[in-house]
Amino acid sequence: MYILCICDNPGISQEKVAESTCIDKSTVAKAVQQLLQGGFITRQSSAEDRRVNELYPTEKAKEIYPKIVEIIDSFNMGQLEGLTDIERDIFIRLLQKVFNHVKPKP
């Protein structure tokens, strides 16, 4: 999910990754370190605020991004198998509504 977040938002800060994924900062920091070591992302200090680290996907991350999306889509469709199109739409809207209430407010 970190690769998805960073690929979808190049230059995102670690703090914003934590906020958008609803995962604590220390866990995100550990994952970022692993992604850096694995060559999936790069980290640069922000030109506007040197205290902020901006995260960018590497070509390695961009190459696997479509496969990750495909796997997630396949999993999601499998979970929704047996539901009608209307039921799927209602279910997804309800999940989004629940997620918006769970997501911490800035």
From TrEMBL:
Alphabetically ordered keywords of this record: DNA-binding, Transcription, Transcription regulation
Provenance organism: Anaeromassilibacillus senegalensis
UniProt keyword DNA-binding present: yes
Name listed for the protein in its UniProt record: MarR family winged helix-turn-helix transcriptional regulator
Transcription among keywords: yes
Matching Gene3D superfamilies: Winged helix-like DNA-binding domain superfamily/Winged helix DNA-binding domain
PANTHER family, per the entry: MARR FAMILY REGULATORY PROTEIN, TRANSCRIPTIONAL REGULATOR, MARR
Residue ranges of domain HTH marR-type in the record: 1-100
Origin superkingdom: Bacteria
